[in-house]
Amino acid sequence: MTDTVRVDARGLSCPQPVMETRRALEGAKGGRVEVLVDTVTSRENVARFGQSRGWTVEKAERDGGYCVILTK
Amino acid sequence: MKSVNDLLLSRYGPAVTGAVVGTAASLLVSWGNPGNMGICVACFTRDIAGALGLHRAAVVQYLRPEIPGFVLGALLAALLAAEYRPRSGSSPVVRFFLGFFAMIGALIFLGCPWRAYARLAGGDWNALAGIGGLIVGIGIGIVFLWRGFSLGRASASPKWAGAIMPLAAVSLLLLLFMRPLFGPEGAGPVFFSEKGPGAAAAPALISLGAGLLIGWMGQKSRFCTVGAIRDVVMLRDGHLFSGVVTFILAAIVTNLLLGQFKPGFEGQPIAHTNQVWNFTGMVLSGLAFTLAGGCPGRQVIMSGEGDGDAGIFVLGMLIGAAFAHNFSLASSGAGVTSFGMVATVIGLLFCLAVGGLFRIRMD
Question: Which of B312, B362, B363 is best to mutate for the A interface (most A CBs within 10 A)?
Fold first, then answer.
């Protein structure tokens, strides 16, 4: 069981949530990465980016915002 | 309705929105808006600044209903989808001046990115220099983003904080339709051009309807004419760029059908042929928009869905437009002013300083 990498991208302007996600995905190579965001725009951007890089994407609501869960 | 929303939320959303915006931009010209200016977020915000008496350029004063339409359309879309989440606090004063200088740059070129594409689609080849500058400005912004540029986090605001910009939009519409007259010497406080671009306008209800539709579609699809280029370069993601392509194609086709396509450099409506400054003005705008996270249309739309930082950016554009005309910075068909050149350099220095100095570690 690998550790979950958590990224807090709440409150960041475009395209920083995706850039933070990219950094985390490239660092993790595989496993589970959770990205917290606070807008639907960021949630969709992060999800689309994850899918384009071959990660499986789930979306959930968390702490009044959204959590994008990426696994590979 | 649900299937339309699903389409707008899909990867095809920006392309659909771009096609509608491009078509609307050309139609609004045929219905009365200025040439190649069916929709221009910068020019229309400048006209609103003039109508409110913030500048005294008598030919560009009109309360363009498209802009409050964007705000209210976006608000309705966000409310219906439970996406109305007021937020603010990410370097608001810096964002104000990014909006200020984005407007200065746009009024050197004579148009925001939306109008740059609309001008191109009308056959105004001077727009190519502006679009080239826009791409370079976005490119400089991308370098800063790669180096860790950030204006910091926004955080949640009280629910009513997000209502301020929509209420301001409603107030503008009330002023437009009521046309109050109680200013000194029998003029104002709201001014409407009697000649020039400010006097060229589609019927107000049609403009408002177009604004509401585009605001709603833009909120759903996240249509952004600056993010389009940024995401292609940074992320190899072309889904926003598809919106720019359909915008231009739809506007060209509509212009051809309406006999509004007039190719050339000379004699284009509300345009000049100084390509160095067409280019440089849009470098400034493109950089300012990239540092702020989105194009002017996107900023106006986000201000309607509760983003207070986007609202501050829009207010910066409004005041920037007032300064542009009061200080003789704005270009005209006759060309660029020397004051405008100096202001562009100052704006570039400001944006380069912001891009280089604002780096906030996220971990």
Answer: B362
Based on the structure, what is the number of domains in chain A?
1
- Report residue B121 as tokens: 């689609």
pLDDT digits over B112-158, tens only? 999 999 999 999 999 999 999 999 999 999 999 999 999 999 999 99
A61: left (phi over 0), alpha (psi -120 to 50) or beta: beta
Predicted structure pTM score: 0.96
Q: Where along chain B do its domains lie?
A: 2-357
* Interface contact B153-A15, CB threshold 8 A: no
Q: Render pLDDT for A10-67 as a digit per residue (tens, 0 to 9).
A: 999 999 999 999 999 999 988 999 999 999 999 999 999 999 999 999 999 988 899 9
Q: Which domain holds residue A52?
A: 4-71
Note the pLDDT tens digit of each residue in B193-206.
Answer: 999 999 999 999 99
Q: Which residues of B260-280 are buried (b: 16+ CB within 10 A; e: fewer)?
A: bbeeeeeebbbbbbbbebbbb
Interface test with B, best of A13, A19, A61 (most B CBs within 10 A): A13
B117 is written with which tokens?
Answer: 């594409």
CATH number of the domain enclosing A40: 3.30.110.40
Q: Which amino acid is at B210?
A: A
CB contact under 8 A, B293 and A13: yes
What residues of chain B lie within 8 A of the CB of A16, using their CB?
Answer: 145, 150, 362
Residues of chain B contacting A, Cβ within 8 Å: 9, 11, 81, 83, 85, 87, 89-90, 145, 150-156, 222, 224, 227, 230-231, 234-235, 237, 239, 292-294, 309, 362
Q: Which residue in the block uniquely carries the two structure tokens 């009280």?
A: B158
CA atoms of B93 and B98, how far apart (whole Å): 9
Q: How far is B156 from chain A (nearest CA, A)?
A: 8
Cross-strand bridge partners of residue A68: A35, A59
What per-residue string of b and e applies to B66-96 under the rule 16 or more CB within 10 Å gives b? bbbbbbbbbbbbbbeeebbbbbbebbbebbb
